[in-house]
Amino acid sequence: MKRTSGKFFVVMVAVLSVCLLCVNAFAKEPYKIGALLAVTGPASFLGEPEKNTALMLQDQINKAGGINGHPLEILIEDTKSDETQAVLSAKKLLENDKVLAIIGPSTTGESMALVPILNTAATPLLSCAAGAPITQPVKDRTWIFKTPQYDISAVEAIYGYMKKQGISKVGIITISTGFGDAGKKALIEIAPKYGITIVAEEKYGPKDSDMTTQLTKIKASGAQAVINWSVGPGQVVVTKNWHALRMGIPLYQSHGWGSKKNIELAGKAAEGVIAPLGRLVVWDKLADKHPQKALLKKYTQDYEARYKGEPGTFGGHAYDSIMMIVEALKKVGPDKKKIRDYIETKIKNWPGTGGVFNMSKNDHCGLDKNAFEMVVVKNGDWSLLK
Amino acid sequence: MLTVFLQFLFSGLTVGAVYALVAIGFNITYNATSIINLAQGEFVVIGGLMMWFFSESLKLPFFVSVALTILTAGIIGFLMERLTIKPLKNPDLLLMIMITIAVSIVLRGILMFSFGKEPYVYPAFTEGEPVNIYGAIIQQQALWVIGITGFCIVLLFFFFKKTMLGKAMLACSVHTTAAKLVGINVSRMVMFSFILSAIVGAIGGMAITPISLMEYDKGPMLAVKGFCAAIMGGIGSNRGAVLGGFLIGVLESMTAGYIHSGSKDAVALVILLVILFLKPSGLFVSKTTLDLRKF
Are A57 and A319 in contact (CB under 8 A)? Predict the structure, then answer.
C-alpha cells in the first residue's frame, strides 16, 4: 500500500508540472504600455495619484481576465518632474521594453520634450498634462494626444457663466508659475469674445503669504468679480484674504480649485467661491442618467477604498489615458498604427473622468467647455450652478 | 486713497513681522557663533506644522500646544547644534554654513515625509470680525503676528542686555577667546543660541500659519527674505533686523500696490542692493564693528 501511494505521488507531481507548463504555454503574451509619471519632484502631487491609478487599473483589468486574454503590463517610470529624465525614460521604454503606447508625462514641459521623440518613434503618447501646445498644431502631432481639459475651456466656462450673470468687468490675479501664466494668457485672449473687459491684472509668488494688496487694487479698479488662477496654497490664501476684506464682489477660481481639501483649509471663507470643475469631484451631485456618473462613481470609490484618499482630477487624467489605450487594444490588437487611428477616429461620445471625449483629426484632446460644471461652495460642500 | 494706502501698509507690516522674526533668528546664532544658520526658515515651518499637529491632530488645548511646539523646536535646535556643529574638530566658518544648508535639506525631507506636501492651517488665535481702521481692514490674526513679534523683540532685548546668560552669549560673539578666558562656557552658549533661534523661528511660524498656511517647503523663501532683512538692517543688530524686516515687507506691498505685483520681489532686492552699495555694513551697524567680525 505504501509503495503504491509513493508512486501515486510521483505521477501526481509529474502530471501537475506538465499541466503548469501547458498553462504557461497557453497564457498569452502581455500587452506592454509605458507610463512616464512625475512620481517624485515638484510635480509629484500630479504623479502620485496618476501612478496609483495606473497600478489600480492594471490589477482590475488583469483580475478580469486581461485584454482579450492578454495580461496588461504597465511599466511605470519616474520622470522626477524633469524633462531630461523624461526623455531618457521614454527612450528606455521605446527601445528596451518595446511598449505599444505611453501615457503621461504629468507636466506640460515634459510632454513637449517628448513630442518629437514619440512622433519619430511612431508610438502613441497620451499626455496627462493640460497645455494646449502639446496637441496643437495637430498636423505636427500625429501621435500625440492628451486627456486633461484645455485651460481655455475652463476660461470659457467661467466667462459664459459671467455673461449670464451680467458681469462685464473683471480683475484677474494669477500665480507666477506655468499654470498661472497659461491661465492669464487664456483669460486675456478670450475676454473680448464674451464682451468682458479686464480692468486689473495682478500676480503673486507660489509661496506668498498675503495677497491683500493685490485684491485691494482689484477692488479699487471697479471690477465686478475677481478671478484667481492658481494651484496650491495660494488659492486658499486668496480666498481667505477675499473673505477678510469683505470685497462685496464674487470670487472665481480656476479648475485647480477642485479638491475638498481647499474647502477644509479655507473654512468659512470658501463660502460662495465659484469655479469650473470637472465632474469627477461632483459625481454624487450628477443626475443618474448622466453618461459619466457610473464610471466616476466606480473610479472614485475604488480609489478611495484602496488608497484612503481622493483621486482628484489628476488621477482621472491617467484613468482616461489608460482606458483609451485599453479599449483600442481590445478592438484592434497590438498594432501601434491601428491604436493611434482607433483613438483618433473611434473615441466619440466616449465618457471618461475628464468629460465626454470627441477626438478627431483636428482635435487630439476632444474636450470643450462642456467638460466643466460651474460649482459653488455652499455649506462646506460643492453645489452645482445651473 | 488713504484707505488703499493703509491697506497696503497693513499687508506689508503683517508679512514684514515674520521676516523680522526670521532675521532675529539669524542674528541670535550669528551673534554667538558668527555663522549664518540657513536652516532658520525650516524652524518657522516646524513651528507652524507642529502647532497644527498638537492642536488639530491631537486636539490638545491651545496653551499646551504652544508649549509643546516651543519645546519641540528647542529640542530640534539643541540636536542640530549637538549633532552637527559641536562634533567639528576644526570649526571653519564656511564649513559650518554648509552644514546648516545640509541640515535644512534634511529637515525639509523629514517634514515632507511626516506631513506630506499639502498645506496645513488651524483657526486664528481669536475668532471674530477683522478690525476696520479708516476703511482699511486688518485681520485679527495679523495683529497677533505683529504683537507677538513686538513682544519677542522686547523680551530678547532684555535678555541680551540684562541677564547674565544673554550677556555671556553676546560676549562669545565679541571675542570667543576672551569669553573663554573670563570663564564663559562657549560651547554651551553656542548650544543656547541654536535653541533660542529655533524657538524664535517657531513662534513666528505658529503666528503666521492661520494667515498664510504652512507647507513643508516654505522655509527657503522665508530664509531668503529674513536674510535680506538681517543684511539690510546690519547683521548682528536686532534693531536693524526688525526695521529691515518691516521695511522689506512694506516695500514689497507698496511695490505690488503702486507699481505692479509682478515686480515686488525684484524691487525689494534692488533696494537692498542700493543700501548695501551706500552702506555696506547695513543700516544699523558701523563699518568698524563689521571689520572686527570674522565674517
Answer: yes
